[in-house]
Amino acid sequence: MSTRWMRDYLRYDSLPWDDIAENDQLPEVARKVDATLVVVGAIASRDLYPVHHDAAFAKRSGAPDVFLNILTTNGLMTTYITNWCGHGWDLESISLRLIVPAFPGTTLTTTGSVVRKWADETGRHIEVAFGAENSHGPHCSGTAVIREAASTERSAA
Amino acid sequence: MTVTESSTLAENESDLYHQQLARFVGGESPLIESVDAVCPQMIRHWVEVMQDTNPAYTDPDWAATSRHGGTVAPPSMMQSWTLSPLWPPQEAAALPIAPLDEVLAEHGFTEVVATNQSQQVVRLARPGDVVSYSVRLTNVTETPKKTRLGLAYFVTMEYRFVNQTGDLLGTQSFTYMRYQPVQEESNQ
Fold first, then answer.
1. Domain range holding B164?
2. What's the complex ipTM?
């Protein structure tokens, strides 16, 4: 298998615990939503319900066009956070609510902030509040918790 | 549809919950096995869409020396491994929402849209793993709510995802609404 061509786009470092503080803002990320993103998102997540690939079906359901499925939104929001913190962190949980659908021809702008930083017997954790908006209003909002990995390298055991 | 008819409808729908919907709450499916095993191709297709930069998903050389000991699947994919193929038609899974959806559709709640999703990650699936899931219907709103899209019932389900040795991969809560499209209501 060759994914060597991807390597320039991958991130081999990770955000250190000490570099994260409560109230930190995550960098804003804008993503153009077009029919391609809606359809490949639906197929990659295996959600074949026609409102996510068939515009005529979507219109009969009362929507102006196809729109992002919730699994793609969930993936985009998870990636927004894990691309920020890097591979030395694991997603523990994410919870989101959809508000206004994301239709082709709009741009999804995602923002986030660190709302809590704490350590307990299970490790060191960061909670992030996030939200994404488009020209129609808020698309989604939610929170996620990440946990720092004890080690980033393979153990001898 | 007139305002009077609409309020009569709301009362009937309140009865609908107690007479027909409530009995489905608490219903749970058996464990249902995925069609495909976790594989690098589907992981890459996902990563392509999300533009995910974590080398644990797509760089096997790096992943082999990492704490994961090899590539892993993004946690958000947990449900995607289990969704039904387009063809051939599958024997209808014994899902607890199937009879509920049927009753709601018979009463004009014909359209579906997801509203909430939450996931708790326990361990990451690896290529070769076979994911199975069970789903339990945990809540239906007792009366239909007014939404921008139309009158809607909200349905919540809890999922459990396990691998081939029964290890828990994660859990998921999922809420969708079943609604009567507004277009029909404005057509007086």
1. 3-38+75-186
2. 0.95
